Amino acid sequence: MARYAAITGTGSYLPEKILTNFDLEKIVDTNDEWIRQRTGIVERRIAEPDMATSDLCVRAARQAIKMAEIDPLDIDMIMVCTVTPDSFFPSTACYVQQGIGAKNAYAFDLSAACAGFIYGLDLADGMIRSGRYQTILVIGGEVFNKIIDWTDRNTCVLFGDAAGAAIVQGTDAAKGILASYVGSDGDYADVDLLGMPAGGSRLPASHETVDQKLHTIKMRGREVFKLGVRIMPEAAQRVLDLAGVTIDDIDLFIPHQANARIIEAVRDRLGFDPEKVYVNVDKYGNTSAATTIIALDEAIREGRAKTGDLILMVTFGAGLTWGSTVIRL
Ligand code: UT7
């Protein structure tokens, strides 16, 4: 039975179309200076109208499969972590399964908002450690532009589209996911705090819900900001303790990329050297479940994350959900 779950391949897909802060100035009452100062975001990627989340995920998955040097038929399980699925059902993961030809897998979606990918990694780790499965594809993918209210400057400047994928495989070598800490607090389950009010069984789609733009993301940004700054350092410290390591042991810290000011606050609370903190929110905005995995993939491909490095990742999102993990690459 494999004792560790290692990340043997990563991949990502960023749509080609770039939407800059200056482009947004033409759409809503905002400006580049405000967005940069308050969020650190300079531009974000936008998927074409005919692209659904699974289209991004398939592209990211193919890269991860290539890096891991596996056959899609080796994959036992596919998890797509997303809050912007192609459809409620079938799951986005089933479309991905078809797209990559992973006939031997079972496939499902996981809904934990921005914390989705870390939830997925934790589940993959448990499944591999249990001995039931050997090769798992975990994807974080979102097409946020389709659920954005492009007249709401409080939210439309923040999000972007992306997908990132990881192949997680059982190994006897002492590497991979060393510890995870995931949690949620349903006391914060509030669609107006952070969520999409309509389209589900609480408020099914109707002419009224469409007229009132209730199929778009709603957020009370300042409250969410404070929650993030509180919960991410806690989750990070908890997983460091579980892994039996300290901040000094970490080679690269990959926090959820929602806002550069949140990242700085979390970094300072934990006492990280800025050079050890990976930031790409300036280029991609908040891509929700995709942020940590597209950052990890980018860091690997840039050589900033190397074999043997110790990586700390931490996220938080709607729910409230949070997750952190320590990985030996
Ligand atoms: O993955 C987790 C999901 N989300 C997040 O993590 C987001 C967390 N929250 C945030 O990142 C920040 O709260 C925001 C970036 C959303 C907002 O920044 P803030 O510093 O908390 O600003 P604020 O909401 O307190 O708004 C300050 C002012 C307001 O004007 P008044 O009332 O002071 O006149 C807003 O109307 O800034 C105004 N404002 C804008 N101005 C220009 C809000 N959005 C914009 C905008 N452009 N896009």
Shape summary: globular
Please count the beta strands (DSSP E, at least 2 residues each): 13
CATH homologous superfamily assignment of the largest domain: Thiolase/Chalcone synthase
CATH level-two architecture of the largest domain: 3-Layer(aba) Sandwich
Low-confidence stretches: none
Instruction: Tell me about the largest β-sheet.
Output: 5 strands, mixed
Task: Kindly name the structural category.
Answer: alpha/beta
Helix content: 25-40%
How are strands sequenced across the largest beta sheet? 1-7-6-4-5
| Overall number of structural domains | 2
CATH class group of the largest domain: Alpha Beta
Rg, please? 19 Å
Attached small molecules? oxa(dethia)-CoA
Give a written overview of the molecule:
Helices cover 34% and strands 23% of the residues. By secondary structure, it is of the alpha/beta class. The chain folds into two domains: 171 residues, Peroxisomal Thiolase, Chain A, domain 1 (3-Layer(aba) Sandwich), CATH 3.40.47; 150 residues, Thiolase/Chalcone synthase (Peroxisomal Thiolase, Chain A, domain 1). Strands 1-7-6-4-5 form a five-stranded mixed sheet, sandwiched between helices. Strand 12 and strand 13 form a beta hairpin. The protein binds oxa(dethia)-CoA (UT7).
